[in-house]
């Protein structure tokens, strides 16, 4: 009988491992902390760009009547990641480029792949869909920040850059805070991640 109990135990352990793996790699809306436990704090040197920076705060967001200060979280987040790759870029210049090149929908939603064309051949738009812990953690482990879409209780959506992790906590640069909170855990802001985007660096960034 012992071997029967042993077999059941092995099967149960295997099922738990399989379910855990599916939970880790599966794409869906996920809690804003979790995934792999990072025993050593990881913080990537992503520069901080604030929507309220007076250099571009009043610039219109693409074809809309909104300003970057009001609705520029996506373009600021994209600029932070591309600047991390070494590109000479900021939200004002990226917004002007996207406005000229059809980089926005009429509603002002960013075509994320267009932002990668700011320095052709320097980065590529690699992913835009539902998040998973595996996708976020594997990018951080190889030194690549990611952008996530979150939603506040009032229904308003917002984009931030995940640029580190401490334990189960994802650490963010938030373009809406003007750096007042520094780098802080995403779970303080919202309980859930709705969507994920990330780029990949291809070559050293040329001067523009």
Description:
With 208 residues, the protein is α+β, with helices and mostly antiparallel strands. The protein has a single domain (29-201), classed as Alpha-Beta Complex (Cathepsin B, Chain A), CATH 3.90.70.10. The chain is built from six helices and eight strands. It has helices at residues 2-25, 68-71, 73-84, 91-100, 112-115, 133-141; strands at residues 30-31, 33-43, 123-129, 146-151, 157-173, 184-185, 192-193, 195-201. The strands form two sheets. Strands 2, 3, 4, 5, 6 and 8 form a six-stranded antiparallel β-sheet that branches. Strand 4 and strand 5 (157-173) form a beta hairpin. The chain is globular and about 70 Å long.
SSE map:
Blueprint: H1 2-25, E1 30-31, E2 33-43, H2 68-71, H3 73-84, H4 91-100, H5 112-115, E3 123-129, H6 133-141, E4 146-151, E5 157-173, E6 184-185, E7 192-193, E8 195-201
């Amino acid at each position: 009988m012992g071997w029967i109990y042993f077999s059941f135990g092995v099967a149960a352990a295997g099922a738990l491992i399989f379910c855990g793996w599916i939970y880790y790699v599966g794409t869906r809306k996920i809690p804003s902390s979790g995934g792999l436990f990072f025993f050593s704090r990881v913080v990537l040197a992503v520069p901080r760009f604030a929507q309220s920076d007076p250099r571009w705060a009043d610039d219109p967001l693409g074809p809309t009547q909104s300003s970057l200060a009001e609705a520029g979280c996506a373009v600021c987040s994209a600029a932070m990641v591309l600047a991390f790759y070494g590109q000479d870029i900021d939200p004002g210049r990226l917004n002007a480029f996207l406005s000229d090149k059809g980089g926005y929908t009429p509603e002002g939603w960013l075509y994320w792949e267009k932002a990668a064309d700011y320095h052709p051949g320097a980065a590529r738009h690699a992913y835009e869909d539902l998040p998973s812990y595996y996708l976020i953690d594997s990018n951080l482990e190889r030194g690549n920040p990611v952008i996530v879409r979150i939603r506040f209780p009032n229904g308003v959506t917002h984009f931030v850059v995940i640029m580190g992790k401490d334990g189960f906590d994802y650490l963010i640069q938030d373009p809406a805070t003007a750096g007042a909170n520094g780098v802080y855990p995403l779970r303080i802001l919202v309980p859930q991640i709705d969507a994920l985007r990330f780029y990949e660096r291809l070559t050293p960034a040329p001067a523009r």
